[in-house]
Amino acid sequence: AGQAIMQKAVALAPDRYVTGGKPDPLTSSDDPLIGAPVSRLDGPVKVKGEAKYAAEFALDGMVHGALVYSTVAKGRIAALDVAKAEAAPGVVLVMSHLNAPKMQPPPLLMREPLGGSGDALPVFQDDRVHWNGQPVALVLAESREQADHAASLVRVRYDVEDGVTSMEAARAAGIQVAEFMGAPLQNVIGDAEAALASAAQRVDQLYRTPRQNHHAIELHAVTVAWEGDVLRVHDSTQGVVNAAFTLAQVFGIAQEQVRVTSPFVGGGFGGKLVWRHHLLAAAASKASGRPVRIMLSREGVCRAVGGRTTTEQRVAIGADRDGRFMSLIHTGVAVMTEYNAMPEPFIHNARVLYAAPAMKLEVQAMNMNMVANVPMRAPGESVGSFALESAVDELAEQLGIDPIVLRRRNEPVQDPTEGTPFSSRHLIEAYRAGAQAFGWQERHAKPRMRQEGEWLVGLGCATAVFPYYRMEGGAARIVLSRDGQARVSVGVHEMGMGTATAQTQLCAVRLGLPMEQVSFDYGDSALPGAVLAGGSQQTAVVAAAVKAAHAALCAELLKLAGRESPLAGLKPEQVRSRDGGLCKADDAGRWESYADILARAGRDEVDVTAKAPPSQESEHWSMHSYGAIFCEARVNVVTGEPRVTRLLGSFDVGRILNAKTAASQLRGGMIMGLGAALMEETHLDERNGRVVNASLSEYHVPAHLDVPEVEVMWLDIPDPHAPAGMRGVGEIGITGTMAAIANAVYNACGKRVRELPITLDKLM
Ligand code: MOS
To answer: pTM above 0.80?
Structure first.
């Protein structure tokens, strides 16, 4: 299937596009290890409690840090009384802007190539307060409890200034077109407003999505020590190299002087970046001469770690009587701060999903005094899909057309905004397969047609989509030894999603070795590569880097093989790995084992490092993961309570590398979407910008009983232009899910909720 689709895609490509390089041979490999549901290699150590997380490194002489958070949104620290705290038992140091060492502002994630900080504000360098919850003092003590107690004794007096703590105030203060990764979030094709006005049918609605906090199970934590001139950091991060670079910049030292390791991460989702506690731990460790551990409390995460931001989105669709889109408008605002770079690019979905002759897509940003918002699983695409896919459902209802038929009718033949061909797009097949498995034909076209006891039952669907990314910085090292062991190392991350397992599988296939003879090292800034576990790109980056390193390995082995080898005279591009050796690509019989090549050359091992080439593929092709989400929702006629009782995702995400870990990623994304649809919301006190529900008792996320069986399925069609045919699976599950749930709730009870979360008060 892979070959046929590849040929089709190449044939479809207009002459002006080159293909973005030759396909990875593994794209069409029939090795059964690709896709095998291998259990996590790190599972046993985690179950046994042997996996050490950032706050579990007990260093000699270590002290513990606790933070004091500001209680005003904007102003100056007028007075800071630390006498009681300094006199409290066990206290080693109280640090604030009054006595902190000089530190440079931290380089910002997505603004500077290796930036890793959630915000770009200097830390403890002046008396300014920028948000309610900003750390204003740090206490170091011999125990965590002593530090927490002493922190409670710090008294701060503020000169309070008027902060911007409401949408209205933010709007009044100024609004501008947002930029995402260096480009404006804006597309204008034709006159979309005029086309809308003259369309036979139209919907034109506002949708709202709230702030959300990151609530990974593992609290943000860091343990640091200065070993001479080297800063040693045990972190929980999705960017070891970004963290090292950021800390090096802040302290004015070389990047090599910061070593960050992060072997296990208890959930990332975009929030495990560099925050103030990292910088303060390192500064306080220097000042006190002691190793320092800071683990934020759950409240601390809500105060000092940013999450998803508020959006207000307009979606307007004009269509002819058959439902063909004449105009697509998706515009709106996202709230940001003055010192971050994450505007929730909620137009990404509209850019690629539907053919429409006129489009107006735009994200504007306005600023508030709040903790810097950062990526949170499918930033933009998740909340954008809620608005867009709700509006498509509203149009289908108005036209009396099945929502899947309406989507099929507007399926584009090429990227609607870029004009590029799709690398591989099988959204309609995903719908077909999903609809059949879900029993979509049972859906009533009109709401309130099905009631079981107190429960109104409805079905809904929505499209999931997430871009393919492969950022620069991929590099890998392979050490192959004569005993047939290969060690592959890349500075990437295992946040529980199965990176180490899936990559070990792929490396084994690439190297022609059994999995047991391959080890995969990661989570260390000293390893090759600078790769973020973000943008659902890690799998592709590692695959491309290992492919490059494997090519270097083949070249090296051919040099060593010499004239007596059956491989003599072959060029690197003429060979491939199989059965613990190299063979001619189209003549498997011309083969020699790694062991024999190394033995003849008198070598114990070969050691190669190579960089992944830049991602040509996403310049030449429109590359995205797709899916169709189906939901059965129930609404209680007495209480208004909404419940999701069935959820199914049918995905077109390229080739699946590990059926077990990929299913978990897709399912987990959908569950996060369920939480966003029905529960999650950070409440901000508009008088003072304070997060009101800074705990998991008041910030609701789905518990087990809230989550039904979540079915996931995939087409497993390789993307001919992605390394090993794979696109991302980490974020797409959350996209589409909120709208599928909102659409099912509407189909159940006839109430259209356009403001998340869909709580019972909105359904009464
Ligand atoms: Mo993600 S929001 O790219 O961790």
So the answer is: yes
